[in-house]
Task: structure prediction
Amino acid sequence: MTSTKPKQKPARQSTRPAARWSVYLVRCRDGSLYTGITNDLSKRLKTHAAGKASRYTRSRLPVTLVYTEPQPSQSAALKREAAIKKLTRPQKDRLILMRPSCKPAGTTG
Result:
């Protein structure tokens, strides 16, 4: 009797690039700031521009990207978003002045 081992499937390699998470701030028409996270900044900005991204920005269009900060993971992005949301407005303004956004190619906003 021969021992037959079950065939093992080869390791599956992902064809998708690793998600690149970012924390971002947009300035609304009324001057207020909205903070969020995304793994596709261009798509998220287009969604904001279409009025479908968040209830807050929907009534404050147009929005302009003023700050982005890359993060290594979704968890890190969520933690950084929470920390930014706790900042006072003057602290957020300083953050924006110190590190302005790099607008992704092909976006308006």
Confidence is low (pLDDT under 50) at residues 105-109.
